Amino acid sequence: MLVTLKEILKEASNKEYAIPGFNVFGYEDAAMVIEAAQELNTPVVLMTNRDAIAHMPIKILGDILTGLAKEAKVPVVVHLDHGKSVEEVVSAIKAGFSSVMYDGSQLPLEENIRRTRKAAEISHYFGVSIEGEIGSVGYSDPNIEAKAIYTVPGEAKRFVEETGIDAVAVAIGTLHRMKAQKANIQYDRLREIEELVDTPLVIHGSTGVKDEDLTRLSRHRVGKVNIGTALRMAFGDTLRDEINSRPEEFDRIKFFKKPMIEVKNVAKEKIMTLGWGRKQVLEV
Ligand code: G3H
Ligand code: ZN
Questions:
Q1: Which of the residues 25, 53, 122, 130 has an alpha carbon 20 to 30 A from that of 86?
Q2: Structural contact between residues 254 and 219, judged by C-beta atoms closer than 8 angstroms
Q3: Would the CB of 23 count as within 6 Å of ligand 1?
Q4: Nearest ligand 1 atom, CA 23
Q5: Catalytic: 166?
Q6: Nearest bound ligand to CA 45?
Q7: Spacing, Cα 244 to ligand 2 middle (Å)
């Protein structure tokens, strides 16, 4: 079923598990993420980043993802990731997304607050959840120009109070697009933020987070954990092997089979590390 982020964050707010948010780029990975969530009976967030909506019109992508979400047996959020303008947020709402992120993290604080509040007013008017970002999670890819700025706890408090957002992304040591799990999480900073901010927190760049830290983070007030690169590597690396090992084959549907299974396997592993493994054991 298609749900808003706010609806499923209620379930994660007991500090035992975090909701996985996976970047997806089309039918193949989105369907596998939903299968993974269904097999583990967990909610999940399908997220479209800027590359995805540059590749496919947002309305078409929205139709595919909301169609899959509506058919799913578990709660599924369809979320715009890193929207950079109020116009992008509006186009996602028009395309049927149930949640959006307005990312003003590169803007001065006052401007970030002003634009995020505007995006929040519009989203809430249409019953759509919204995430903002304070501080800025940078990129390990040197070709991407984005300043990395650790979140200042007092600014996070002001940001959520003045914008009315449903979830807030914070920068506590992660970086986008890390291929190895080598991020150093600043738990002291996280605790200070938690003391001041009631709004569920979001961790970006979580491919680079070690498994033990994913589990540890899920016990804090972290509502959503964003994972993209891990699934892209699973799909792309397996697809490359498939193409190289079968030079006579040209049917892309046949090439896609193994990469899709790999995506599902990685999604299941990540979901389990986010506290849901413990929940499964308790429910048996
Ligand atoms: O917003 C998307 C996430 O922050 C993904 O980050 O690709 O480094 O896992 P990642
Ligand atoms: Zn991100």
A1: 25
A2: no
A3: yes
A4: 2
A5: no
A6: 1
A7: 32
3-state secondary structure of 35: helix
Separation CA 116–CA 110 (nearest Å)? 10
User: In the predicted model, what is the mean pLDDT of the chain?
Assistant: 96
Residue-range domain boundaries for the chain: 5-283
Do β-strands 99-102 and 201-203 pair in parallel, antiparallel, or remain unpaired?
A: unpaired
Q: Smallest Cα–Cα separation from 197: which of 156, 169, 165?
A: 156
Taking ligand 2, which is a single-atom ion, which protein residues have CB atoms under 5 Å away?
Answer: 204
Q: What DSSP element (H or E) covers 198?
A: none
10-14, 66-70, 124-128: which has the minimum mean pLDDT? 10-14
26: three-class secondary structure by DSSP: coil
At 48-72, the pLDDT tens digits run: 999 999 999 999 999 999 999 999 9
* pLDDT band per the 50, 70, 90 thresholds, residue 103: very high
Cα dihedral: 170, 173, 177, 178 (round 10):
-160
Distance from C-alpha of 242 to C-alpha of 86, rounded to nearest angstrom:
41
Q: How far is CA 280 from CA 16, 275, 276, in A?
A: 12, 9, 6
Range 5-283 has CATH code 3.40.50.2000 = no
Dist. CA 54–CA 40, nearest whole Å: 32
Give me the half-sphere count of Cα atoms (radius 13 Å) on the Cβ side of residue 9.
22
- Ligand 1: atom nearest CA of 228 is 7
- Give the mean model confidence (pLDDT) for residues 27-41: 98
Residue 12: pLDDT band with limits 50, 70, 90? confident
